[in-house]
Amino acid sequence: MWLIEFFNGPLKGVVLPIEAGLILSGNEICLKSDNSLYLVELASNQSEWLFTIKNDQVVVAGFSQKKKEKCLKSGFIYESQGVSFFVYKQGEYKCLELTYFFYRFKFGIIVLLLINLVMLSVGAVSFVNYQERSVSNYIDKLSGGFIEDGRLKVYDAALLDELPSGWKSFVEVVDIGELLVLKNPLVEIVSDYSNNKLSADVVETNTYNILKVDTLERDNDIMAAFGKYGVIFERQGGKWLVDNKVKAEYALKESALSWAIPDVQAKGLATTYISKEQFKYSLFYSSEGVKYLYDRNRKYWVGSDVPGLGVIVSISKEKVIFDEGGRANIYIFDK
Hints:
single chain; alpha+beta; Tumour Suppressor Smad4; 4 domains; five-stranded mixed beta sheet; 18% helix; 31% strand
């Protein structure tokens, strides 16, 4: 007679006969006969396993998704949906428990074996090279060092006196200057103010790595220039929206930030072109770069307030631009 024994769960150790057929079902309502047993573990999928005897072997239907029927080996522990069991003939008890645990934890066992092999290898090498002191002490002393071109680079010259004589031939002391020494090669860059993560680019050199972090210095310089000249601004995407484009461009030029002018856009800035009748001034423009407007009474330089036209923002051979309360007044000279 063939028997089934449960290996784990609430039914652990329970033995049932299979000769007349056995049904393990997750549907309590649809139990078909006295040879049916309800298992709560099978309820979630409404599974049903039908055990029968064919050619003196136990065959189960519904257990495997790949096959309609699966032939079970004596003593081999099967597991599915949280239910573990094995079958055997009466009087021939057989439970391959070790095989079960090996298959279940084979990846962990393999990893553990590999770790042990590595540790044995390291231990063998360490026994030869670290006769005078323990491995842990040396590793602690050399924390932060690194190996390059077959030589161990350290940052503290005092370590040489604490290392075995056989080590000193391939140990080199590196002068770090103002560089930072990190004991852990994994580094996270965060803001000191908000503790938020910052993106950084790593640049490798022959002796050390450089972490490049965008501190928004360019934006800070632009905002400082706008603030100095009273420009109201707003940052949207990659553009600077300003209340007075003329004044903003002047502020950037005076702050040696002309490269940022293409990113400046005005918010509703009005522009007026001055007619010849309105413009009663002459232009002086020398080859040395001296430039100003003048009339009979005085001279007007960049930054001067010209009555009726506004403050001079820029003067060129082609045109002069005035700022009149956020309005750009432009006069174009005849060629």
